[in-house]
Write a structure and sequence with these properties.
The protein folds into two domains: about 220 residues, 3-Layer(aba) Sandwich (Rossmann fold), CATH 3.40.50; about 70 residues, Phenylalanyl-tRNA Synthetase, Chain B, domain 1. The relative contact order is 0.12. It starts with 14 loop residues before the first strand and ends in an 8-residue tail after the last strand. It has a nine-stranded mixed sheet with strand order 5-4-7-9-3-10-11-12-13, with helices on both faces. A three-stranded antiparallel sheet has the order 14-16-15. By secondary structure, the protein is an alpha/beta fold. About 0% of the residues have low confidence. The chain has nine helices and 16 strands. The chain is about 30% helix and about 25% strand.
Length: about 325
């Protein structure tokens, strides 16, 4: 038993990426197929191995990275790195691929994991994809008990045994939830969730849910080489995708009244009523420029908005 004044505070040396990952943590990177999880994971590996800030997050503890891929051959992995324009200095990035097998058995590669951790002082392990990596246990992916009491303790035991921070890549289901049991979300130390915008494939919503850092939300831009960067709200090309959806809906409806809850459902926007209210208020100049004339009024039920759309003038373009 320890008194409060005797409890230790965590230090920066325990953090791999500020706001994202601490040492010996277990993290989940998740999205639907074709959003770019593997490319995102490689970009993350590049930042950790080379000490380069990752999407605004400082790398406090650069480290060699071991990337275990079940979907790419070593030549495909090299091609992906070339596409992203990234390279690694000697002994800072290591890879294990499936080598034409159906899955990777962790027991078969554990010696290499041990070598990575002990000989190269590697601290970060990325498992891409989790579904094709077999551990020495049987489990039902839809069972909370199996995920929380069998699979995740097994993964965490490797993090503790080899002093590793582990990020595993997984899928979202059709409803936008982590595939399988909610046990995945409940027992990891942090989640990075990527969502493709339904109006613009190049805009990705990144949600960060974390036990050790404040939750965060950021919109990313993915360029033609699949490189992720923070979207800059300097033009309509990079503006929050919910605003783009809002504008498209307003153009279609022309002249109407609404409250924020109604329009989120009708326009299929990816935000909460509070978030949309803030977005509208902070983008009034942009909306006016795009031809959306907005007035506000109150009723007994709460705040309402009226929009009238007029084709914007192109004289000053």
């Amino acid at each position: 038993m320890k008194a409060f004044e005797d409890l230790k505070e965590s230090t920066k040396k325990d953090i791999i990426i500020d706001g994202l990952m601490r040492s010996k943590g277990v993290y989940l990177l998740v999205s639907k197929p074709k959003v770019g999880k593997s490319l995102f994971a490689l970009q993350l590996a590049n930042s950790i191995a080379n000490g380069i800030p990752f999407l605004g997050h400082e790398i406090l503890k650069p480290s060699p990275v071991l990337y275990i891929t079940t979907e790419l051959s070593d030549s495909q992995l090299k091609d992906r790195c070339n596409l992203l324009g990234i390279s690694f200095k000697k002994n800072s990035f290591f890879a294990i691929d499936r080598s034409d097998k159906q899955s990777i058995y962790f027991r078969d590669i554990e010696y290499e994991v041990k070598e990575f951790a002990e000989e190269y002082n590697g601290k970060v392990l990325i498992l891409d994809m989790l579904k094709d990596i077999s551990f020495d246990i049987g489990y039902d992916i839809n069972s909370y008990q199996d995920i929380a009491q069998k699979l995740m303790p097994q993964i965490r035991s490797y993090a503790d045994k080899y002093n590793l921070t582990i990020l595993f890549v997984h899928h979202l289901n059709k409803l936008g939830k982590t595939l399988g049991s909610t046990g995945f979300d409940a027992v990891v130390d942090g989640i990075i969730r990527l969502s493709k915008n339904c109006y613009d494939d190049s805009t990705i919503k990144m949600e960060i849910i974390n036990r050790d850092f404040p939750d965060d939300e950021e919109y990313l831009h993915k360029d033609k080489n699949q490189v992720f960067s923070i979207a800059q709200d300097t033009s309509l090309d990079y503006v929050n995708p919910n605003i783009i959806g809002f504008i498209k809906y307003a153009i279609r409806e022309k002249d109407f009244d609404f409250n924020v809850s109604e329009i989120i459902n009708k326009a299929n926007l990816m935000c909460t009523p509070t978030q949309l209210g803030k977005l509208i208020n902070s983008n009034l100049d942009l909306l006016e420029k795009e031809g959306l004339h907005i007035t506000k009024y109150r009723t007994a039920e709460g705040r309402m908005y009226h929009i009238k759309y007029e084709e914007p003038s192109l004289e000053n373009e």
